[in-house]
Structure formats: structure tokens, C-alpha cells
Specification:
alpha+beta; 6 helices; 288 residues; 7 strands
Amino acid sequence: MSQQRKPEYLGDPTLARVMRRPQWILALALALLVAAVFAWLGQWQMSNAIRTDAEQVVDTEIVRPLAEASTTGKGVPELGGGAIVEARGAFVAGDSTILSPRQNGGVAGAWIVGHFVTEAPEAEAGSHLAVGIGWAPDEAAAQRVLNELEADPAFTESRLLEGRYMPPEGPKIPDHDADPQQLQSMMPARLADVWSYVDAPVYAGFLVMHDGPGAAPLLDGLDPIDSVAPLPPETVNWLNVFYAIEWVVFAGFAVFFWFRLTRDAWEKEHELQLLEAGESAAGENPTA
């Protein structure tokens, strides 16, 4: 089966002559204006896709007061999450708990989590902060250390803690054979429900305590919890890059649309000429 060939249109008017007609020149100007608007939108999207604001880059490894990283009553800000902070205060006896299972260096174990009441000026005075004190290889070992901490009068003395301030974790559904009341994720709002008293705002995030002067007595029998610096902020917003490419495609389509309309008009003229020529030939050679 032979493939139907596209007809060739010879003679006047040529495609170039049709394109130079006033109405199609005006249509081209309109298409170029639309294309320019689309190109500008693409450039605007691309400029937003690349973050160049130096204020967005924060050195999370410089120790700063907790008050600079976050405040109570609000969520953890983007620039505060993962920052190393210091906070002065005291632990509340009887409110420490065990969080399990928790990974540390790829090994499953348990955290000891304390209830810390902050003091000025490093933090808001009298506010409540959840603190990951340390990691134990299993719940039994964590419980032994927790009992020792709670029995030590120095546990509730004022101290300056240093650690990484982290945003709250999402809830986890316990296994079917686990205690439904067992804590498995660091959710300060949930911890506040089990603390003995909460008479002031609670920080939305929690502190992963580092091994420092304020933590030395607390870490006997525990390993420091893994504290990894957060990844640098994404410098490219790929969604905006995709939108920018879309606008460039739209700009090219606006010019192509003008070309397609012009070509259709040119082809239609030649088709009408061929039709008129065929009718004239039929009139000069009538059939019986």
C-alpha cells in the first residue's frame, strides 16, 4: 500500500508572501509579545529556583543560646532545626522516661529522656524542654541508669547543657504485641502529658544532649546519642526549574502557533485555486 504524499503547492502566493501580509505581520507581533511575556515568566521562575540569599545559610555548629534558635509557643523554625544550642536549667525528678527502640550507630537500643526546666538568659525562664540524655543498648540497661539518676540529688541541680536542637518527630504506631502507652518517638507535646507538672510553655523541639561539662555525671553508663549536622539547605528548587522550562516551551509554542496558522492560510489559498481550476476544466470539457 503506497503512502499518500503531501501535496506540493507551487506558484503564487508563496508562503513567504503570505507571511508578509499586514494581518499576519500583526499576528506575528502579537505572538512575539506573548512569547516575551512567557519568557519573562520563565526567567522569573528560574531566578526564584536558585537561592542566593546568604541569610539562609546558617552555621549550625556554632553554639548559640536556645533563645536564638527557637521560642516556645511556635514550631521549630527552619534555621533553628539541627542547630547546636546551650540551655541552663534543672531536670525534674520523677519525670525521666525511656524511649525505645532507638538507633545509635545503626544499633537498636533505648534513650533516656529527661524533663528539663529552663532558666534565663539562655532560654525562656521556667519553660519546659524535652532532653535526650543518652543511649543504652537495651531497656534494662536504660532502666538501671535511670534509677541511678533519679536517686542522685545532683540530678536536679542547675546545670548548663549543650546539644543539638531537633524538631519533633512524628507519631509511631506500636507493634500489636507492644504496650500501647510505650513512647517510641520524640514528641514533646506527648511527653508533656505524662510529666508530673507543666506550668509554662513547652518547647516544640527537643535537645539531643552532647558530652560536655553539664552532661558528664549524667552519661555514666550511657553512650552519647548520635548527633549529626543537618544537610545544607537545598540551593535549587527543582519545582521552579520545571515551571521555568514550561514557560519557555509556551513561548516557543506561541511563535509556532503563528507559523501554523499562517501555513494553514497559505495551503487553503492553493487548495481553493486548485478547486477553481478543476471546476473551470470541467466546464470547458463537459461530459455527455
